[in-house]
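Saturday, quiet lab. Running sequence design on the structure tokens for the scaffold JK sent over.
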């Protein structure tokens, strides 16, 4: 037994939990000082900060020629963020979905997921495609901050009361955010080091390591941040963190990594058959769930079950197991069926609600 790897895993987890708590407190303080809503902070500062491990790992993978790890890290992280993090957070505390996520951020997440699939169809990302992703990142972030400032200004004009909220001084919030981010990156690096070490001992391929061990390891800041935000009742940050991180992973992590010198980012055929479609499908099933306005515990349990099924399918597919194809078919039947059922349920409840309001009127 390798005690160094075990120590790295345990220490990394402890540092991640501490870092997430400090980072959230600092981010909320910046939100208040900059007159931004907690949702926008979750979509920008928190999402970008917790996704930095993905950027570091993917960029390092490209520079070292481990392009399968770089690509698998992003795709695997987005699947993990949507299904596992939203699932576990909803089990802890049902999440409220802000209307802004439906109007702009969810369509953006789905759109960039489809764009990544389109770019990857020829087996990789070119320099021009990488630059396109980075430009989209800058434009989307600028628009999110601009719209948030307008919403806060309108809310202040409409209310004559001045909210009395306790907030850290701005310099303390900035220091806490930077310190928490540093702890998040350090903790994730320690976890990835230990996890990859164990994975290599079991003979897993680079793509599978990137889609599972590295993806989960680099997404642990998002896990810690969203779970702690859900526990503390800051549910806008919990949901916004996941959506923002997914957008950031595609636009920034893939975009910047594709522009670095080296072999670029390749998209293996096996990833295009299972993992990339799964990433897109995981984003699409959020449509009826977010339309309902909340993510309840039952939906959270379904998301977790879907992620477990995907992980089992991925491992069996890597080993060319005959059951893998059947599980793959089960995934691409079950998830669309759930999406359709949830959408019909939403429409039915909305229609019944309208009838009830009409009868009372």
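Result came back. Writing it out in full:
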């Amino acid at each position: 037994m390798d005690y160094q790897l075990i120590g790295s895993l345990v220490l990394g987890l402890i540092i991640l939990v501490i870092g997430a708590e400090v980072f959230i407190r600092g981010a909320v303080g910046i939100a208040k000082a900059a007159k931004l809503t907690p949702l926008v902070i979750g979509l920008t500062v928190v999402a970008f900060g917790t996704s930095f491990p993905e950027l570091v790992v993917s960029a390092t993978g490209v520079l070292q020629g481990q392009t399968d790890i770089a690509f698998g890290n992003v795709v695997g992280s987005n699947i993990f963020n949507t299904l596992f993090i939203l699932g576990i957070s909803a089990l802890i505390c049902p999440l409220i979905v802000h209307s802004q996520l439906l109007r702009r951020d969810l369509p953006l997440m789905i759109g960039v997921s489809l764009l990544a699939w389109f770019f990857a169809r020829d087996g990789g990302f070119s320099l021009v495609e990488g630059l396109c992703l980075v430009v989209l990142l800058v434009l989307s972030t600028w628009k999110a901050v601009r719209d948030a400032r307008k919403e806060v200004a309108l809310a202040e004009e409409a209310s004559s009361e001045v909210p009395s909220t306790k907030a850290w001084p701005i310099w303390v919030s900035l220091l806490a955010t930077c310190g928490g981010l540093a702890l998040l990156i350090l903790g994730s690096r320690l976890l990835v080091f230990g996890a990859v070490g164990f994975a290599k001992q079991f003979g897993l391929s680079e793509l599978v390591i990137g889609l599972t061990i590295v993806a989960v390891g680099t997404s642990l800041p998002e896990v810690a941040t969203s779970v702690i935000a859900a526990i503390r009742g800051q549910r806008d940050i919990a949901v916004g963190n996941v959506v923002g991180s997914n957008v950031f992973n595609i636009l920034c992590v893939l975009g910047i990594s594709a522009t670095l010198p080296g072999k670029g980012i390749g998209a293996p055929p096996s990833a295009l058959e299972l993992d990339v479609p799964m990433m897109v499908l995981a984003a699409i099933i959020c449509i009826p769930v977010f339309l309902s306005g909340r993510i309840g515990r039952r939906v959270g349990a379904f998301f977790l079950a879907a992620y477990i099924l995907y992980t089992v399918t991925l491992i069996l597919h890597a080993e060319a197991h005959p059951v893998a194809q059947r599980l793959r078919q089960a995934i691409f039947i079950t998830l669309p069926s759930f999406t359709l059922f949830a959408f019909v349920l939403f429409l039915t409840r909305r229609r019944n609600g309208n009838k009830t309001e009409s009868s009372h009127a």
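Notes for JK: The CA atoms of residues 229 and 238 lie 5 Å apart. The first helix runs from residue 3 to 33. Ask whether to fix the surface positions before the next round.
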